[in-house]
Specification:
alpha/beta, nine-stranded parallel beta sheet, five-stranded parallel beta sheet, 25 helices, globular, Protein meaA, Cobalamin-bd
């Protein structure tokens, strides 16, 4: 048949996002996955590594090795990639604020293996803008952060030409509420800021901007509306081609090709009837593979049980096999693009292109994406979009099978084993990592370390490229926390806008008025002006979407809300609760560190003489852990099953009344 391709397409790079406990344990997992046919590595780093802290830092407590692997120094990098030939590997690293540091560790580890830097292939995500908007693993203000990205790009163009030094990431924008139009528009605005910065830095000759553009990749999200997602990717490709040709003068069509990897929507997976997640993942994969002209270059799939906790190796294998069945058993790769000439698809693509252009122009008119971050415009837009999405979920306009429709269910044999249905992180791993980093420091030549850090601070205070000084720090034995700490001294730290002040109020649902009346009556019964709720994010978990939606709905229900953003110590949360004289404390923890973070807050309140203050907790919390938290004194535990925010508000009022002896 002439409609078939002359030869079958090569499959995309197949990855599994992996990392936990320790470098050695993660290395063993990498080797197993590669043996099963995985064709690329995708490294998940723990939150201390992502935010520039060593495992023995106060803020790292409860977070070490939990959502990824801890990498504190060159020794950890050696162990992480032991026995894996980095000259041949294609390694993706989900790392942003500390991307330059992790790339430097990777380069030095590869050189020790004998791999030339020019041969290295892979990607550092290195998109700091979306961290201010959604994931929260930023460290420095936007200006210095963009400099780190710029310096990394300039260094790789000159030294590691096969490496993708930046991976503009719209994945978390979708999780934070972005519509397809916003996801495309906001991501392209980020790409413009990065490319403008590289062009204007003078580090790359104007005639080499095509070399920069061809190494910019994207990392996207694909939800279950797979027809719309497929059209979104075609729109992305069209706009990227136009933008790079018109704004940066790139004439070579190959350099303008839109290159992207994808992780399908993890936050769309459900704790209720988790077996439904399997078909969700398959449908989401189709959105980024069906259209040949906009097909992903690399795909990684979550596991069916990620809404319950950390997937086991078997769960990750299942997700890898989904990709292999599509690529090797089906006939997808035998045909040209299935949608060329489709009037339906072209109309949908056109609508996304037009809307995304409007968003991009609006951001550029504000002064660019950095200005749009600093003014709070982007964050407010995402909070408002997510509030609207939540409204559709709650009123049933958007159906989620097993959650707000078809909730009747048989017991699942997949979860019958309880805690054994997810990977368990041994608490001893954190103590071992803390002991190991202290031993590493003790075994170094301190004068060499001090000199390297002094040179880094001097370079940061100037205008030169920071990569050479960073590589010197790696070789000297500097740790992740020390590298980031030196730059904190020069650049300062940053607290991003929360987006709450300008977010749109939720459409009134029939029960909200009743809850608002209960809130007002309870405040009168207590003799206070208004009920006060403190929403706290302890530890390094930066996924603030849930906390922000709780804060928005609480405000709409009549609470006075105290929300200071992410990454707070238990002591800071306790101090705020006492100083603000709140009536209830709500803690949000999605990283799995709840058994460490929550008791620390409870103990702090007790020490401050406020053991009477009720505390509730929300997050991805297994039933056994929820029981432990309640035994420790937590009044209520909310999980993703509790999707009706107004009902949660009603429950908060009940908790306050009960804590104060009110009927």
């Amino acid at each position: 048949m002439e409609s078939r391709l002359p030869e079958r397409d090569r499959p995309w790079v197949m990855r599994t996002y992996a990392g936990h406990s320790s470098a050695a344990a993660t290395n063993a997992l990498f080797r197993r996955n590669l043996a099963k046919g995985q064709t690329g590595l995708s490294v998940a780093f723990d939150l201390p590594t992502q935010t520039g802290y060593d495992p023995d830092h106060e803020l790292a407590a409860g977070e070490v090795g939990r959502v990824g692997v801890p990498v504190a120094h060159l020794g950890d990098a050696r162990a992480l990639f032991d026995g894996i030939p980095l000259a041949e590997a294609n390694t993706s690293m989900t790392i942003n604020a500390t991307a330059m540091w992790l790339l430097a560790l990777y380069v030095v580890a590869a050189r020790e293996q004998g791999a030339p830097t020019a041969a290295l292939t892979g990607t550092t995500q290195n998109d700091i803008v979306k961290e201010y908007l959604s994931r929260g693993t930023y460290i420095f203000p936007p200006g210095p952060s963009l400099r780190l990205t710029t310096d990394t790009i300039a260094w790789t163009v000159a030294n590691a030409p096969k490496w993708n030094p930046v991976n503009v990431c719209s994945y978390h924008l979708q999780e934070a509420g972005a519509t397809p139009v916003q996801e495309v528009g906001f991501a392209l605005a980020t790409a413009v800021a990065i490319l403008d910065s590289v062009r204007d830095s003078g580090q790359v000759a104007p005639e080499r901007m095509g070399d920069v553009v061809q190494r910019v990749s994207f990392f996207v999200n694909a939800g279950v509306r797979f027809v719309e997602e497929m059209a979104k990717m075609r729109a992305f490709a069209r706009l990227w081609d136009d933008l790079t040709r018109e704004r940066y003068g790139v004439r070579d069509a190959r350099q303008r090709r839109f290159r992207y990897g994808v992780q399908v929507n993890s936050l769309g997976l459900t704790e209720a009837q988790p077996e439904n997640n399997v078909q969700r993942i398959v449908l989401e994969m189709l959105g980024v593979t069906l259209s040949r002209t906009a097909r992903a270059r690399a795909v990684q799939l979550p596991a069916w049980n990620e809404a319950l906790g950390l997937p086991r190796p078997w769960d990750q294998q299942w997700s890898l096999r989904m990709q292999q069945v599509l690529a090797y058993e089906s006939d997808l790769l035998e045909y040209p693009d299935l949608f060329d000439g489709s009037r339906v698809v072209e109309a949908l693509v056109d609508s996304i292109v037009d809307g995304a252009r409007v968003e991009l122009d609006k951001i550029l008119d504000l002064g660019g994406v950095v200005a749009a971050v600093e003014t709070g415009y982007l964050k407010s837009a995402l909070v408002a979009s997510l509030a609207e999405r939540r409204r559709r979920l709650e009123d049933g306009s958007d159906v989620v099978v097993g959650v707000n429709r078809f909730t009747e269910t048989e017991p699942s044999p997949l979860t019958a084993s309880g805690a054994e249905a997810i990977e368990q992180v041994d608490p001893a791993a954190e103590r071992a990592a803390a002991d190991a980093v202290r031993a590493w420091r003790a075994g170094r030549d301190q004068s060499t370390v001090d000199a390297a850090l002094a040179a880094l601070r001097t370079a940061a205070a100037g205008t030169g490229n920071l990569m050479p000084a960073t590589l010197h720090c790696v070789r000297a034995g500097v740790t992740t926390g020390e590298w980031a700490g030196a730059l904190r001294e020069v650049f300062g730290e940053y607290r991003a806008p929360t987006g709450l002040s300008a977010s749109a109020a939720v459409h009134e649902d029939p029960t909200l008025a009743g809850v608002r009346e209960r809130v007002g009556r309870t405040a009168r019964d207590l003799g206070t002006g208004r009920l006060r709720l403190l929403v706290g994010k302890p530890g390094l978990d930066g996924h603030s979407n849930g906390a922000e939606q709780i804060a928005v709905r609480a405000r709409d229900a009549g609470f006075e809300v105290v929300y200071q953003g992410i990454r707070l110590t238990p002591g800071q949360i306790v101090a705020a609760a006492v100083e603000e004289d709140v009536d209830i404390v709500g803690l949000s923890v999605l990283s799995g560190s709840h058994l460490a973070a929550v008791p620390a807050v409870l103990d702090g309140l007790k020490a401050a003489g406020r053991a009477d203050l009720p505390v509730v907790v929300g997050g991805i919390i297994p039933p056994a852990d929820a029981s432990k938290l309640r035994e420790a004194g937590v009044a209520r535990v909310f999980t993703p099953r509790d999707f009706a925010l107004t009902s949660i508000m009603d429950e908060l009022v009940t908790v306050v009344r009960s804590a104060n002896g009110l009927p």
